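ugh ok so i messed up the first submission bc i forgot one of the chains. this is the corrected input, ALL of the components this time, i swear. 613 residues overall. if the numbers dont match what u have on ur side tell me asap before i send this to the collaborators (the ones from the other lab, u know who)
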Amino acid sequence: MLKAFQSLPLKRGDFEIGSPAVNRPWIKLPLMFDPARLRSDIGAISSAAWVSHGSGDESLGEWNGVALRSKSGLSEDLAPWGAAEEFRDTPLSARCIQLQAAAEALKFEKRSVRLLRLHAASQTCEIRFPDLCMTRGEVRIHIPVITDEDVEIVVANRRVMPRPGEAWSIDFSQPHFIHNRSSNDCIYMVIDGVTNDWAIALLENAARNAMTETFEPAGVANLRAFREMVFEDAEIQAKLLDITDRRLFIQEVVRVGAQCGYAFYSAEVESALNQSKHDWLMRLVAI
Amino acid sequence: MNLVGWLPVRIAWREGGPRVEWTLMGTQRLLDPFFVQTVQRQMAKPFYQFFRRETSMEEMVAWTDANPGAPLRGMIFHMSRCGSTLIGQQLAALEMNIVASEPEPLDELLQIEHRLPDLPRATPVRWLRALVAAMGQPRNGEQAFYLKADCWHIHCLDLLRDAFPETPWIFLYRDPIEVMVSQMRMPAAWTVPSLLHPSMLRMNWTDWDPAELDVYRARALAKVCSAGLRGAQKAAGGLLVNYRELPEAMYGRLLNHFGLREEDVPAMRKVAQQDAKSPGSKFVSDESAKQTAAGGRLREVVANHILEIYGQLETERLARVEGRGC
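and heres the new structure output, hopefully the right one now
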């Protein structure tokens, strides 16, 4: 039959980098690194290696860093600006195996890779970097290595709470500041690179799932497993096949499911049935 | 995965690409004039809504590699309202045949292919073969499968021929006045651009003018006819058939073409006495009624847009019939 072309397949070539999925001020990415392993590399960095990254205003406290990849190839070079091909791994990167592996899991061309440390009771002043956003071809990923409940990261007036080992994309063209109100130093790995299809897909996926963590109810999972079983069980099919009454059908599915050891409620069956019907009707407007 | 008894009813475009939806057919045959009618009757029952099954395209490919189904013995292309449903019903009247008449998943697959011009040819070819094999699974010991396409699928002839180079095909057409009268009385969904994208008809959005619906139809039909003519001239295995030759052609030159036997004719004759689209009612010839109904405007539109290609089809068909003595 016939359909309208409402949902054209996405083609990479057509993708607009300025799409809403990519332009979110912050997205927690579907990547997770082992925080203990990341932390284990920090001891390999001598305290003398950390160089100041601060504004010079001592009242704000201490803000410093080291580079695993920089333009000069030196670990004290924290300047992130420049073309990707100008950047080189620093000698420190070879000693930070876990951190280096996390950076390599990000499949885009890297510019600088840095560890930034905000000391206890320190803060950065609010700033924005207008050039630093995906629409300009820049991607910046944050991976907290050590942090604390009392570290405030505020972007565009909202507090975000990245936890150790998580990866976040934060749009630093928005006004932002960090205030470490805790009594511990916190350390973030900051990876800059060049936007590519992989990065866009990662952010798109993240945007789709950008929601509070949720769980599939046991009944829904059981119902899905029951359906899979029925697909290949002619005997159960025969029991349900000819029921025309919707209420009765739902009751029977719950009953037969329970008999087979799959516990779910009629509300879950009804919801799944509605979804199937809706999906079937929608075939007329979109492939 | 065991898909015995399951029929693909939809190729759905999901986030990750195309997916196949299947319904449980058991031993039912596809006997309705259109594939969608059989499917819709199922979908009225909650079981079939609830237990539709989904696989990837490649799962369908793998499963049909192991379960090849009845061979595709014929493809029917047509310009709409010209007897293709009758041919489908005649073929389906024979118990050894499976007939899919304008199956939605075929169209969905061809539309997806059309919109992904970068797909290497081997991919849609593989998918088409798998879809045909899945639809053509013998559910009652059938031995041959026939596919009646939608009228715009003649534009995909090259691709379908790549997938099924051995399969004989026909392009069926009719006096455009009669086709246009039928479309005027009951326009097909494809004549509305928001229901079928104009590019599937090799038309543009700008070709559609609400004040001249008949011109859009006529031009689209002319393109269908022209693709049929080009196909017949270029590709092997094709026959041009005029509606006027039906149903007799089925017992004559189409019998061999579609691999049928003399003893199949009586059952097919019986079907020809009924109205193909409403089995149960008697067939009444409407050629003269449609000719009478055609007004001056309609004749003018036909003359401006389709008459020339219709003449060329007739010339080509008659030359072949005389040349080959069949």
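quick check: Residues 2-12+216-284 of chain A form one domain. that seems consistent at least. Chain A has eight helices and twelve strands.
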